[in-house]
Recover the amino acids of this structure.
């Protein structure tokens, strides 16, 4: 892919892929994590506050750190996408308004606060936080999809399809849906990064997952007090998190650049 | 213009009302209530029950909400179920610190982002452009709590140059307290803002009237300031409103790490202790502020570029 | 880097001191190598765990450590507790009681309030009536002073007060040393304007942030050495950073990990009060599976207490012996330490039909180490063939939830006299009876013991009751954590005593070198 031209592209991919691989494949690696004393230097990267092997925790901590974020984004696109498409495609203005206005209500509230409030209420519940992160993103996704769909839906192609008596589904999910994919893909990078940030911040603040969860962000938070005793207990999960967000951001940026340049609009 | 502002204001009032109901319902749904939270193992269960009655928590929720609404409309934000003092006091005490933080960050980030954005935009795809882009992109890609932990570990604990927390600190006596927290908030916001200014600059530079002005021999500085900047500023101003969202979210993490007794912390504490009036009061103030910021941003954009497209 | 041998070394030391637990706890020369002469003046900033809006200035409503510290500086009680939790007179210089221990006479000291008024008996009577006022249920000492009969209590002259109880209680003075029992001025109405007899007078207060107090030169005891006292609030991380970064000189309730970090550096000193709190698992004895005494015993046998102490407390503490109050007045002497016996536990559990079954342990991040201890204990229980599933609840409601939910959960207790602990938790009508230990015979024996006026006899009776609790009860006290305070190098005069005792957090005895 031309986006990978140059060392920078490959670096971005590596930064992104390594944590992903650890998160996805880690739990299946047959690694024997030996328990030791708190913040000791036993094992490759030492132990954490509970004497658990840091490397062992790294291998299982990505599931929540990245998994919750990805799950939330998928959910946000499914729900937001559906709402946006429906709102854009309907002939009745009142339906459009009825679907979009309520979403505006939550817009003034900053996302992290809303999710923190949910997290406090439904303690240590990964699904609850995932749903909350998804819901916080739905308004933006819905607007985005609606705007793109409106562009497509008002064009001559859709008129033609409609005159040919194609079903609502074929028009919406077929043509309009596909033309929405472009802006959605451009937005994907920001959305996933944001989701990872939100989930990590909530877990870091101790408002989300259980304090002994192996999650990367929870580890960074809980092991701060032992930073001088065993730095790897904080640095290793932090590096994995940063590596992913950095790599992903760089990649997404280059992709958007690439597509914009091809489309001819100023970057 | 005026009818537009009135229309927006009316919409805002409706939004606030719906938000208030939503927040009340959500906090009331949480398990446990303020009477239990107030004292965990120092009061017997019968004392807790008596306390609950005293706080009025045994009244039906609808009645409590209407009571609160009535008070708000007369300017009374109610009393905290936890401290027994007025919610207005909690709002006033916590808002100071957060305001100072956010305003200082804005005061630094706006000039910085504008300068960077214009510098990048006028040298599109040049070495400087790409260098600044990479740095700001990298900064914004690192979670703020990681930046905060690293900054504190290096500048406060290891080197001892800057104070690590706001514990017992007085801003007037030691403004250096602001440096690290603002630094963290800066990292997250400067990238997007400068990118938007850059995009606006490039669009403006390529616009017809600018090329025309250049042909007429208008000096470069005047070109930039009078023709390019107002148009470049539009996406910047809209982004600024969105920056508000990032800042208020980032503020929670910063307040937690630096022990700053601010707004976001007060809100989350209120939820943890089920202090419903405090949560509602703080959310109301927050929502009003957010709506005002958005309205302000839209009006400014309208002024800068009086075309209806700018408002969408 | 820390190695296992260092932990053993510590264990060895504590083992030797264990028999003389009293000496380890008592504040004799806590600050080794202290400067010779106390110096006057200076400002001390102490930082405690915060409670946000829950922090109060009204001493009768106190509930947090930070409240207790603040009110201790400004107000005083009739009685306080010594390092072994024995009552020590403060505003009451002496006391006597009648043969039945129902009528008590307290002689008051010659003390003055911050506004110049002398302490008189009417102040005491007013304070007590304010505490027990049923219209204000949030006054915390209400239930412990429930047996006080104020109608029959009276002043005898200006400096003696006679208090009458509805039931005999030889431990009454200790009740007057509990939380929320401070003496305020007769007619005290506005908590925002504190007037007490303590060593410091109130200057300003901001809930969730700080209390500022200045030295009171008319203090009846030796006046404080420092000029100004700030008591601030912050969470665990911020406290650690503040005291290391020089923003505070005294930080309360630090973690063992912080102690390790501090000892590696040189700017901060740790003052450790050994084995002065208790960490336990509590089993409900009235529901399966813990209604079976064999199962309770099996769990007590399978716990690897030393490992729990090494990991959860980072070695900072002693192993527990399933009983509260080691080193305190009335703790039975010569109690053999229960040793780990996995095989016996396994067979007991198999006999009870629990082999291979799953039990839930209900925990929450309500206190440092709870979730960690539960997780670690689950591993240990697995060795005996039973699966212990860890479920977490909300930290804010955990203490209340544990009263009704969960067959087994976590419990942490601060320092208090043993009879107080029993009254709060081990009687049928106890408000905080997390083990649901309800035995009318036990209640009667305890009430009888409490009425005995001879201390030796009382002690013996208490001993019998405690042994019963230890053998048959639902408290699996696995560890006795040290109570850790961090002070900057220039702070002197800090005592290593259990929390809630007289010399803990006594800022009138502290000075800056």
């Amino acid at each position: 892919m031309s986006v990978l031209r140059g060392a920078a592209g490959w670096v971005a991919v590596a930064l992104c892929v390594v944590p992903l691989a650890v998160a996805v494949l880690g739990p299946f690696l047959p690694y024997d994590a030996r328990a030791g004393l708190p913040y000791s230097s036993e094992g490759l990267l030492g132990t954490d506050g509970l004497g658990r092997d840091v490397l062992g925790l790294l291998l299982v901590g990505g599931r929540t750190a990245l998994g919750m974020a990805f799950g939330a984004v998928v959910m946000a696109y499914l729900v937001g996408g559906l709402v946006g498409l429906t709102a854009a495609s309907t002939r009745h203005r009142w339906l459009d308004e009825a679907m979009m206005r309520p979403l505006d209500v939550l817009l003034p509230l900053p996302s992290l606060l809303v999710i923190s409030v949910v997290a406090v209420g439904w303690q240590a519940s990964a699904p609850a936080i995932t749903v909350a992160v998804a819901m916080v993103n739905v308004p933006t996704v819905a607007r985005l999809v609606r705007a793109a769909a409106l562009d497509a839906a008002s064009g001559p192609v859709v008129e033609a399809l409609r005159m040919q008596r194609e079903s609502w589904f074929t028009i919406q999910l077929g043509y309009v849906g596909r033309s929405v994919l472009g802006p959605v893909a451009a937005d994907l990078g920001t959305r996933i990064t944001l989701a990872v940030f939100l989930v990590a911040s909530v877990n870091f603040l101790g408002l989300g997952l259980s304090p002994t969860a192996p999650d990367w962000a929870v580890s960074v938070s809980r092991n701060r007090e032992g930073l001088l005793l065993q730095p790897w207990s904080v640095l290793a999960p932090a590096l994995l998190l940063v590596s992913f967000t950095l790599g992903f951001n760089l990649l997404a940026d280059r992709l958007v650049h690439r597509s914009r340049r091809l489309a001819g609009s100023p970057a | 213009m005026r009818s537009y502002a009135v229309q927006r204001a009316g919409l805002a009032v409706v939004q606030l009302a719906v938000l208030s109901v939503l927040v009340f319902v959500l906090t009331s749904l949480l398990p446990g209530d303020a009477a239990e939270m107030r004292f965990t193992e120092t009061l017997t269960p019968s004392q807790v029950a008596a306390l609950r009655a005293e706080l009025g928590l045994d009244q039906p929720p609808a009645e409590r909400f209407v009571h609160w609404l009535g008070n708000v409309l007369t300017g009374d934000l109610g009393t905290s179920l936890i401290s027994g003092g007025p919610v207005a006091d909690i709002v006033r005490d916590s808002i100071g610190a957060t305001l100072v933080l956010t305003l200082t960050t804005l005061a630094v980030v706006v000039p910085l982002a504008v300068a960077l954005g214009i510098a990048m935009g006028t040298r599109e795809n040049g070495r400087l452009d790409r260098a600044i882009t990479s740095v700001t992109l990298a900064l914004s890609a690192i979670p703020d709590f990681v930046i905060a932990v690293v900054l504190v570990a290096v500048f406060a604990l290891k080197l001892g140059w800057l104070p690590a927390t706001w514990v017992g600190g007085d801003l007037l006596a030691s403004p250096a307290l602001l440096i690290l927290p603002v630094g963290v908030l800066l990292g997250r916001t400067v990238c997007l803002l400068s990118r938007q200014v850059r995009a606006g600059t490039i669009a403006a530079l390529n616009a017809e009237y600018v090329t025309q002005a250049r042909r007429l021999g208008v000096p470069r500085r005047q070109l930039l300031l009078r023709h390019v900047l107002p148009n470049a500023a539009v996406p910047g101003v809209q982004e600024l409103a969105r920056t508000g969202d990032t800042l208020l979210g980032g503020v929670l993490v910063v307040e937690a790490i630096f022990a700053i007794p601010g707004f976001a912390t007060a809100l989350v504490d209120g939820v943890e202790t089920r202090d419903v009036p405090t949560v509602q009061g703080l959310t109301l103030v927050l929502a009003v502020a957010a709506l005002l910021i958005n309205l302000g941003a839209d009006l400014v954009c309208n002024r800068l570029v009086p075309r209806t497209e700018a408002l969408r | 880097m820390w190695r296992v041998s260092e932990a053993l070394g510590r264990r060895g030391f504590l083992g030797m001191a264990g028999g003389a637990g009293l000496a380890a706890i008592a504040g004799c020369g806590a600050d080794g190598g202290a400067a010779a002469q106390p110096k006057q003046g200076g400002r001390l900033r102490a930082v405690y765990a915060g409670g946000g809006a829950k922090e109060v200035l009204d001493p009768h409503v106190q509930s947090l450590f930070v409240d207790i510290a603040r009110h201790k500086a400004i107000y005083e009680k009739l009685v306080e507790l010594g390092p072994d939790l024995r009552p020590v007179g403060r505003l009451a210089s002496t006391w006597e009681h009648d043969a039945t221990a129902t009528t008590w006479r307290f002689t008051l000291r010659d003390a003055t309030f911050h506004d110049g008024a002398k302490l008189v008996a009417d102040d005491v009577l007013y304070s007590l009536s304010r505490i027990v006022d049923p219209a204000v249920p949030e006054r915390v000492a209400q239930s412990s002073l429930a047996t006080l009969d104020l109608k029959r209590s009276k002043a005898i002259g200006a400096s003696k007060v006679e208090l009458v109880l509805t039931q005999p209680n030889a431990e009454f003075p200790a009740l007057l040393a509990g939380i929320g029992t401070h003496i305020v001025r007769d007619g005290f109405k506005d908590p925002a304007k504190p007037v007490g007899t303590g060593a410091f007078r109130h200057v300003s207060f901001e809930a969730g942030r700080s209390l500022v107090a200045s030295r009171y030169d008319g203090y009846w005891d030796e006046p404080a050495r420092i000029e100004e006292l700030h008591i601030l609030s912050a969470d665990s991380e911020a406290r650690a950073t503040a005291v290391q970064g020089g923003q505070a000189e005294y930080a309360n309730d630090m973690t063992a990990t912080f102690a390790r970090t501090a000892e590696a550096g040189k700017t901060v000193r740790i003052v450790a009060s050994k084995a002065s709190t208790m960490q336990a698992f509590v089993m409900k004895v009235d529901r399966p599976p813990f209604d079976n005494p064999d199962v309770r015993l099996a769990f007590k046998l399978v716990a690897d207490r030393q490992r729990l102490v090494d990991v959860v407390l980072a070695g900072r503490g002693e192993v527990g012996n399933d009983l509260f109050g080691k080193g305190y007045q009335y703790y039975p002497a010569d109690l053999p330490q229960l040793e780990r016996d996995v095989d016996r536990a396994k067979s007991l559990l198999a006999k009870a039909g629990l082999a291979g079954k799953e039990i839930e342990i209900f925990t929450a991040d309500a206190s440092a180490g709870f979730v960690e201890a539960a997780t670690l204990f689950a591993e240990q229980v697995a060795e005996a063939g039973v699966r212990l599933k860890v479920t977490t609840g909300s930290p804010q409601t955990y203490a209340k939830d544990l009263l009704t939910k969960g067959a087994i959960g976590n419990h942490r207790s601060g320092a208090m006299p043993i009879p107080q602990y029993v009254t709060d938790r081990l009687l049928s009508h106890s408000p905080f009876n997390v083990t649901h230990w309800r035995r009318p015979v036990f209640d009667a024996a305890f009430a009888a013991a409490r009425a005995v006026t001879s201390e030796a006899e009382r002690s013996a009776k208490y001993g019998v009751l405690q042994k019963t609790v230890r053998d048959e009860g639902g408290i699996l006290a696995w560890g006795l954590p040290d109570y850790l305070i961090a002070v900057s190098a220039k702070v002197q005069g800090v005592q290593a005593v259990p929390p809630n005792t007289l010399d803990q957090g006594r800022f009138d005895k502290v000075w800056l070198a």
